[in-house]
Structure formats: C-alpha cells, structure tokens
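The following block was generated as part of the benchmark described in Methods. Ligand: 2'-monophosphoadenosine-5'-diphosphate.
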Amino acid sequence: MKKYFVIGNPISHSLSPELHNFWIKKNNINALYKKIKLEESDLKNFIDKLRNDEIHGINVTVPFKNKVIKYLDKLSLEVETTNSVNTIYKSGNDIIGHNTDVAGFELGLRHSKINVLHKSVFILGAGGVVSSIIFSLLSMGCKKIYLTNRTIEKAENIKNKFDEVEILKWGEIPDFDIVINATSVGLKGDSLDLVLNVKDKIFYDVIYNPKETQFLKEAKKNGNKIENGKFMFIYQANQSFSIWNNVIPKIDDEVLKILG
Ligand code: ATR
C-alpha cells in the first residue's frame, strides 16, 4: 500500500486527507493519505522516509513550505522562484520539491471563468501563498500587480523575487480590476481595516472557510463579483494527486461537497 502525508503545524484543520482519500477510492488505488503534525526538527527524518520508499509522497503546509527546501535534491521552476514547496515526490533516486499552488490558483481562476489577461491586480498580504499567486498571475499575462501589506518589509521581500510588482503603503488603494485578499483576516469573522469603495470589480479571497468572509460579503453588497479560494485548494490537491498517481482525478459535485 502506498502512503501519502500532509505535514504542517498545526495540521488538524487540513481537509487534504478527505479529498485525497476520496480520489484514491474513486480510482481504485491501493493507498492511504494521512495528516501528521511535525516539528521543524522532524523534517529531515520524515523526508528520509520518502528516500527509503517507506512513504510515497508528501504535501507540505504552513509553516514548512520553505523549511523543507534544504532537504530536497531538485526543485521545480515554480519552487526556485517562489521558495515555496507544497508537493514532494521521488523520481529515480532524487527527492523533488514542486509547488502546485501555482497551477492550483490558475486552474481555479479558469474554472470560475475569471480572466486576468491584461488586467490590474491588487494583492493584500505578503504571507506564504502570495509568491505562488504572483508567479501564477504573471504567467497568465496580467498587466499590473500592486502589492500591499501591513508590514511593508514583507512586501519588499516579495518584490526582491518579482521586480514587476509595485509596492503600495497599507491604506493606499490603486485603480484595479481584481483584488485578492491573501491575508489571514476573515478566518475568524474579522474585517480588514481597508476601505475599498468600488463596484463591478472582482473580489477574490484565498480563504474558503468561512465561504464568505466580511471582505467578500461587503464586496457583494456593493455590486462586485466575488470568489473564494475553494477551487484553488481543490486544484492544488488535484495536481499533487496526478503527479503521484498518474491520474487526473475528477472534480465533481461529490468532491465539492467534501469541502462543504
Ligand atoms: P501565511 O504564511 O500562513 O500566509 P502569515 O505569513 O502569517 O501567514 O501571513 C498572514 C498575512 O496576513 C500577512 O500578510 C499579515 O500581515 P503582516 O505581515 O503585517 O503580519 C496579514 N495580516 C494578519 N493580520 C492582519 C491584520 N489584522 N491586518 C492586516 N493584515 C493582517
């Protein structure tokens, strides 16, 4: 039996096992996917299990997406650019780090028929997922990316990786077509201290639980189109699954129900 894991700390909230085990069953694969809480000091030993074929694939979540890199042999271009790994697998004798958040974001937008070509995008936040979103937006040909973060130094660190990005002070609002909330504000029903007084724009929140954050509720009330990060999450899992199992698993109503 093949064994797959998602590692993180905390990890109890992760819905990855529900998705992967559903697809494992649907595709008659002899495998099991579990979540496991690790400490940073456990990372090397855990990745060695993949090296020794005791386990067969690892998803990585907060706070280890960058910390695993030093234990890997080869990195995909997405990882080289974003410094963020969410999928690890073995190819020949090499342990490879890949980032399916990039493809997950793009496929999620396409699924929702959101087109970013030649559009201006305003990103709020500079946490772990933002580099993946920027990589994805640039590859889809968006015209302009503005980035703002409460702590400006973190936004500047991202600009070091992506020179095209323009940094704005927290509170400064540019002219935009799409705004993305990539902060953690909204997870607990809280609201951002930013006023975005616009209509007929697209408001995207990476958060999908709750389904509609205050950010999205307010935007909808003002006549904007809204979208949450549910499909990004599903598609990043879908891409990891296809790397490990050579099958692109179906995203149907049953899968959507798993995430509520
Ligand atoms: P992760 O890596 O999991 O994305 P993170 O690095 O803690 O998490 O990022 C959380 C993001 O939400 C950061 O951009 C953070 O801003 P700071 O860098 O200034 O901390 C942002 N954030 C959290 N609480 C916020 C708040 N009350 N107002 C504005 N931004 C907030």
